[in-house]
Amino acid sequence: MNFGFTVKWNKKLTNLQGNSNYIIRQVESGNVVIYQVKSTAADNNLTVIPATGSTPASAIFTSKATIQRIVNGVVDTTFSGGNARLRLDIVDVDSSGRGVDSYAMTVWDGSNNLFHSSNWDGTTTVGTLLGGGNVVVHDK
């Protein structure tokens, strides 16, 4: 899974700005399938928890989302991926980019069924260390 996430509150803290885009790649019945999950502007929420003492900064982003299915490079027009919900939990342990930050992503489909989890333990999505890159959480 790859993801891009740039979301922040405006200066008055009244509206969220930015977007998120997640790419999930897998093989289904011998076909390369890509699911692209994009947040939508409606019903976004961002909660930032500043670092305190030895507890690192973290953030929780929730949003309505759309899911597009692409099979062998062709958009699957029969797949209905609207009205989805996504939640991204990130923890900013180390700003050096050495991969010790973590993320947990969960996507539910339009019927509120679990569609994807980055690391499902049977009841919830558990954080996973980044394999590369860096997340940064600012509280201001």
Q: Cα distance, first to last residue?
A: 29 Å
Order of helices and strands: EEEEEEEEEE
Count of structural domains? 1
Strand content: over 45%
Alpha-carbon Rg, integer:
16 Å
- Separate helix tally: 0
Q: Which consecutive residue ranges, at least 5 long each, have pLDDT under 50?
A: none
Described by strand count, sense and barrel closure, the largest sheet is:
10 strands, antiparallel
Write down how many β-strands occur, each being a DSSP E stretch of 2 or more residues.
10
What is the molecular shape?
A: globular
Helical/strand content category: mainly beta
What is the average per-residue confidence, as pLDDT, rounded to a whole number? 86
Q: Helicity, in percent? A: under 10%
Write the layout of secondary structure elements.
Elements: E1 2-9, E2 16-28, E3 31-39, E4 45-49, E5 57-71, E6 74-75, E7 84-92, E8 102-108, E9 114-117, E10 128-129
Antiparallel strand pairs: 1-2, 2-3, 3-5, 4-5, 5-6, 5-7, 7-8, 8-9, 8-10
List keywords for this structure.
single chain, 140 residues, mainly beta, 10-stranded antiparallel β-sheet, 10 strands, 53% strand
